[in-house]
Design brief:
The complex is a heterotrimer of chains A (118), B (218) and C (355). In chain A, 74% of the residues lie in helices and 0% in strands. With 118 residues, chain A is mostly helical. Chain C is mainly α.
Chain lengths: 118, 218, 355
């Protein structure tokens, strides 16, 4: 099994090389003449007077949390999907129960308006 | 003899120890979070060496792909104040040290225990087409069905808790209601007015007459 | 062809011994990566040409015959441009972000089969691996946005992170349906599971048609392409997460986006359109007429169709508004895919399942 993953490891190394090489080449080939105006962050007309990293709408956190939960659900669905033919009706019913419990959560989410954006 | 596997193992192990150390020593919380990502990656590599294929990739999928994204969101956007964080460091240090000592003791006890040491010694090698995922699937949904359903309940509690903690309704917000938009009929929006067609349209409109004919139609 | 490869392998083994294996793998990786890079370069030309014709223009036509040297000229231009690192930026992360965006887009190709036996690593958990790798693409964007220390970049990064994350769920659920049908996570097995001797009638896009559509649209959203290109909504947030990037840093983000487009096209072909399989296999006349066509051709043809659709979308649809985008992901795709998972699973319990 491991011999299948060795090329993947090598591929990651090659991928990193392909990513880094253009940056190095660009640094070598391109001119490098920085000045204040060029290095200032893109703004409309005036200097930026505060840190750009600001607090954010809590909705984005909610999306991230819900994503984790549903991602876990998918992780549970994967092994089930590949053996459904072997575990038959029993396996089907056990997943049906699992999904219906989570659908309750999804409906709650929906009704509470957690999926609304304005 | 050093096989490639051993080399790769030590590489990942060294990487995860280094990353773990940097998580707690890095000054910038974003750097710390990114080192945690690196630690997860190297742990996934070690699990893969143990042929726990499904768990290794799920670790990357769930922890790196989802949990750490949330972590990054939080540390990037809550602009954690470093000075404030460090304020109580020495006051709470004894309690932290005690907790750490207890955990280290527990780990030594577990790892030093002869039974666990013996059963955990041998790693079974599998053929190239062995599917770890199918093995898991055969067990989780049949033999371990109760813990599995419990996991669903746990996830449900997490969903409800997440919404209860973070959801704030804004009264002034404007929303689009698609169902309402689709349900709109022509008569709700358009009113056809038939005007008397006259040959000569005078530039000076006669408001009284137009209004009167309009009213007649309705 | 196969014999030639075998002689090379034997000669190599004799010459280099244990070092031959890794070296040969390296050669294979280069054989995969180089055409992808070339494909990306010419996809940009194709995009400009096709958009041009759709808007009644001719597109680039000055550099080389029919503009064929345009991508090379673009590459050289970007190479000669100064790499600017803004003063407030976090230097290391600012430089690392484009690399982090490109690597997952390339590494996912390791498990994609191009034709029968033409695959670098036939991993058992191939589909899971793909999903894990595509979920890493978001790091490049978040880090770029944060490291730039620019408001536009930051806003773009947050927007696109939330977008990618939402559509990944729909993708995951759609893939569960593919797994149900194929009963395997290996991409080779998934393609072989669609081979029934009835040509395209055996492919999964028939029983999983809604998932096929959802997967491709979610793929468009994942790659931040029009009409879901809110991350680089130029009229609102300048260029989104790569506002501050120039020269090769910008080029890497571009490469990553296009490599992802090609990847999504390849994956959609493998999961739903039978990968390298001949669509007319086993058909009375057409089957015999097309039997000589190599599998690689079919794979590339299917990928080209999807790539064309990507460009077509861009020319046709206006950009989504953010609330509409989130509604489509969470309130349409996720319920639809969840229902279809149950439908397919129930369908498989009956004797009416032919795939």
């Amino acid at each position: 099994m491991l011999e299948n993953y060795f090329p993947v490891l090598l591929f990651i190394a090659v991928g990193l090389a392909v990513g880094v090489a253009p940056l190095v080449l660009g640094r070598l080939a391109a001119p490098h003449r920085p000045d204040d105006a060029k290095l200032s962050p893109y703004e409309c007309g005036f200097e930026a007077f505060e840190d750009a990293r600001m607090k954010f709408d809590v909705r984005y956190y909610l999306v991230a949390i819900l994503f984790i939960l549903f991602d876990l659900e998918i992780a549970f669905l994967f092994p089930w999907a590949v053996v459904l033919k072997e575990i038959g009706v029993f396996g089907f019913v056990s997943m049906l129960v699992f999904l219906s419990i989570l659908v309750v959560g999804f409906i709650y989410e929906w009704m509470k308006g957690a999926l609304e954006w304005e | 003899m050093m096989t490639i596997e051993t080399i790769v193992f030590y590489l990942f192990a060294a990487l995860s120890v280094f990353a773990g150390l940097r998580v707690i020593t890095a000054r910038n919380p974003v750097h710390a979070a990114l080192f945690l990502v690196l630690a997860f990656f190297s742990m996934a590599g070690i699990w893969l060496l143990l042929e726990a294929e499904f768990l290794a990739i799920t670790l990357v999928l769930v922890y790196v792909g989802a949990v750490m994204v949330l972590f990054l969101f939080v540390v990037m956007m809550l602009d954690v104040d470093l000075v404030q964080l460090r304020e109580g460091f020495w006051r709470w240090f004894p309690i932290g040290a005690l907790l750490a000592a207890v955990m280290v003791g527990e780990m030594i006890w577990v790892l030093g225990n002869r039974q666990t040491a013996e059963t955990g010694a041998e790693v079974i090698k599998h053929a190239a087409d062995y599917s770890n995922t199918k093995e898991l699937g055969r067990l989780i949904y049949t033999d371990y069905v109760y813990p599995f359903e419990l996991a669903a309940v746990l996830l449900l509690v997490a969903i409800v808790a997440a919404i209860a903690l973070t959801l704030r309704q804004r009264r002034t917000a404007k929303r689009q209601d698609v169902a309402q938009q689709v349900a709109v009929k022509r008569n709700d929006r358009v009113r056809l007015v038939s005007m008397p067609a006259s040959a000569r349209v005078s530039t000076q409109a006669q408001p009284d007459e137009a209004a009167a004919s309009d009213q007649q139609k309705h | 062809m196969m014999e030639l490869l075998q002689t090379i392998e034997q000669a190599g083994q004799g010459l280099l011994g244990p070092f031959w294996g890794p070296l040969w793998t390296l050669v294979k990786i280069v054989v995969i990566v180089a055409p992808i890079m070339g494909g990306v370069a010419y996809l940009t030309l194709a995009e400009r040409k096709i958009l041009g014709y759709m808007q009644d223009r001719v597109g680039p036509n000055r550099v080389g015959y029919w503009g064929l040297l345009q991508p090379i000229a673009d590459g050289v231009k970007l190479l000669m441009k100064e790499i600017i690192i803004p003063t407030g930026a976090n230097k290391f992360l600012f430089v690392a972000a484009p690399v982090l965006a490109l690597v997952p887009a390339l590494v996912a190709w390791a498990v994609v089969p191009f034709a029968d036996g033409m695959i670098l690593a036939n991993v058992n958990a191939g589909l899971l691996y793909i999903l894990a790798m595509t979920s890493l693409g978001v790091y490049g964007i978040i880090i770029a946005g944060w490291a730039s220390n620019s408001k536009y970049a930051f806003l773009g990064a947050i927007r696109s992170a939330a977008q990618i994350v939402s559509y990944e769920l729909a993708m995951g659920f759609a893939l569960v349906c593919v797994l149900l049908a194929a009963q395997s996570m290996s991409l080779v097995d998934i393609v072989k599971g669609q081979q029934h001797g009835y040509g395209l009638l055996g492919w999964y896009f028939i029983p999983l048609f809604p998932m096929f559509v959802v997967y491709f649209i979610a793929g468009v959203a994942e790659t931040n392409r029009a009409p879901f290109d809110l991350a680089e909504d130029e009229s609102v947030i300048v260029a989104g997460f790569h506002t501050e990037y120039s020269g090769m840093g910008f080029a890497l983000f571009f490469l990553a986006e296009y490599a992802n487009m090609i990847l999504i096209s390849a994956l959609t072909s493998v999961f739903f359109l039978g990968g390298w399989l001949n669509p007319f296999e086993g058909w009375p006349v057409l089957g015999a007429m097309t039997a000589w066509v190599p599998g690689l051709f079919w794979m590339l043809a299917k990928m080209s169709v999807f790539l064309f659709i990507f460009l077509w979308f861009r020319a046709t649809f206006p950009r989504y508004r953010y609330d509409q985008l989130m509604r489509l992901g969470w309130k349409v795709f996720i319920p639809l895919t969840l229902v279809w998972v149950v439908v397919v699973a129930a369908w498989m319990q009956t004797p009416l399942w032919f795939w």
